[in-house]
Design brief:
globular; Aldehyde Dehydrogenase, Chain A, domain 2; 7-stranded mixed sheet; 2 domains; about 500 residues; 15 helices; alpha/beta; Aldehyde Dehydrogenase, Chain A, domain 1; 5-stranded parallel sheet
Length: about 500
């Protein structure tokens, strides 16, 4: 990846976008659109359709027709595998173009976006493509006079709503297992980051995806998203985003057909550093990136740093120094460490958290200010607060921005108490050289993911899912198939 190649792509005009329904690129029924504003400089770069209920109805109808026809749901595993592999190959071939397009849309620094978006999606599609012909049914241990067979079948039509922070990575976590299992999908991207998903949907058609199997409806959450969640012909709904929206989707399920709803709702992840951490410099640098990469707009971000008392001042100084040294700016510059906040609305939200933290008595060590306002874009300094107590908003609520809350603990019991004093439970980390202590913390922390002596990097082979108000169900790994498959029992009398 060369800067010259990025510069060639960064200013290319982007044509007005369209919906993808039944393998056709079409306008919204009501012809409504809205502008796409780049967080890099605040400029309008294109428009996308403002789809609504009628568009969702068309997409679900196409998905149901495709599913019932069996063109995909009853296709041979080898056929589905070949299509998904061709799709992955096409995404890989266009990876830089897709990455730059996505950065222009959501502001993630290009060095991270290239790997975490198109290349991550490529790996996910290949993983689940390879899994298609390696999933078997079961034979129950019954009497010799009966035969109990347990079949796995696709659920039907899957509705997927994905966020703006890593739309391709998270979108692939939904699309790949849902399609590999034989379902049809209607995807609603975030209105703040639709361009990359629309691009890879075009490539899916080129790869041979049958008409109606994959449909994309862009639009507002309160319009297109709500219509998808309320639709009586959607069998399963999967969502990554905020807790408030997740609650609304559960209500929509109850108001409609009681569709199953699987939610990944973010967190307030504790990053716990013991005095015997194997390398404090590495731990400090990794912890800094664990909260500030992608400007803190990461669902598993280590937004609560818990430091053992004997090393508190030393370690906090290291983290502050790393945070202050990060280069914040143009996300399409390879030398940038931290890119843009996704939108002006999100920047205002982050600044609101900072002001309230100050009002509650937290101490701001570094950061706290918006940057590069002359550019027209949305940028913010990495911000670190200490003297954060458990009753403060900053210790309890997800900022989803580059803001770190730091606390002190005296022993493992207190660390566990602070870590688990949260309604969330998505991710966490422990830094220690003591194997027994590491295992104790892994067992004791209530979260779906516990890093030990690292932060981030868990690949597609392991599941990601939360407990508490971080949601339910799992993305990634073979466990993801559980959301997109039904079990059917055949009970056969032999004599």
């Amino acid at each position: 990846m060369q800067q010259d190649s990025i510069n060639t792509l960064r200013d290319q005009p982007i044509r007005p976008q369209k919906l993808l329904i039944n393998n056709k690129s079409i306008d919204a029924v009501e012809q409504k659109t809205f502008d796409v504003i780049s967080p890099i400089d605040g400029r309008v770069i294109t428009s996308i359709p403002r789809g609504g209920e009628m568009d969702v109805n068309l997409a679900v109808r196409a998905a149901r027709k495709a599913f019932e026809s069996g063109v995909w749901s009853n296709a041979t595993p080898s056929f589905r595998k070949q299509v998904l592999q061709r799709w992955a190959d096409l995404i890989e071939a266009h990876a830089l173009e897709i990455a730059v397009l996505g950065v222009r849309d959501n502001g993630t620094e290009i060095g991270m976006a290239y790997k975490a978006e198109p290349l991550s999606a490529v790996g996910t599609f290949r993983y689940f493509a390879e899994a298609i012909d390696k999933i078997y049914g079961e034979i129950a241990p019954t009497l010799n006079t009966t035969l109990g067979l347990i079949h796995r079948e696709p659920v039907g039509v899957v509705g997927a709503i994905v966020p703006w922070n890593f739309p391709l990575m998270i979108g692939a976590w939904k699309l790949a297992p849902a399609l590999a299992a034989g379902n049809s999908v209607v995807l609603k991207p975030s209105e703040d980051a639709s361009l990359g998903l629309l691009k890879i949907a075009e490539l899916a058609v080129q790869a041979g995806m049958p008409a109606g199997v994959l449909n994309i409806v862009t639009g507002l959450g309160i319009e297109a998203g709500a219509s998808l969640a309320l639709h009586n012909d959607v069998d399963v709904l999967v969502f990554t985003g905020s807790g408030n929206v997740g609650r609304q989707l559960l209500e929509y399920s109850a108001q409609s057909n009681l569709k199953r709803v699987y939610l990944e709702l973010g967190g307030k992840s504790p990053n716990i550093v013991f005095a015997d951490a194997p390398n404090l410099d590495i731990a400090a640098k990794t912890s800094t990136l664990g909260i500030f990469r992608n400007a803190g707009q990461v669902c598993v971000a280590g937004s609560r740093l818990l430091i053992e008392e004997p090393i508190y001042d030393e370690f906090l100084d290291k983290v502050c120094n790393h945070g202050a040294s990060l280069r914040i700016g143009d996300p399409l510059n390879l030398e940038t460490d931290v890119g843009a906040i996704n939108s002006g609305r999100q920047l205002e939200r982050c600044q609101g958290f900072i002001q309230r933290a100050l009002d509650e008595g937290a101490h701001c060590l570094i950061g706290g200010q918006a940057l590069h306002q002359e550019s027209g874009g949305f940028y913010m300094q990495p911000t670190i607060f200490d003297r954060v107590t458990q009753n403060m908003e900053l210790a309890r609520e997800e900022v989803f921005g580059p803001v770190l809350a730091v606390s002190k603990f005296t022993d493992a019991d207190e660390a566990l108490s602070i870590a688990n004093d949260s309604v969330y439970g998505l991710a966490s980390a422990v830094w220690t050289s003591n194997l027994s202590l590491a295992h104790r913390m892994v067992r004791g922390i209530r979260s779906g993911l516990v890093h030990v002596n690292c932060y981030g990097g868990a690949d597609i082979t392991v599941p990601l899912g939360g407990v508490g108000q971080s949601g339910n169900g799992h993305d990634k790994s073979m466990h993801a198939f559980d959301k997109y498959s039904d079990l059917k029992t055949a009970w056969i009398q032999l004599s």
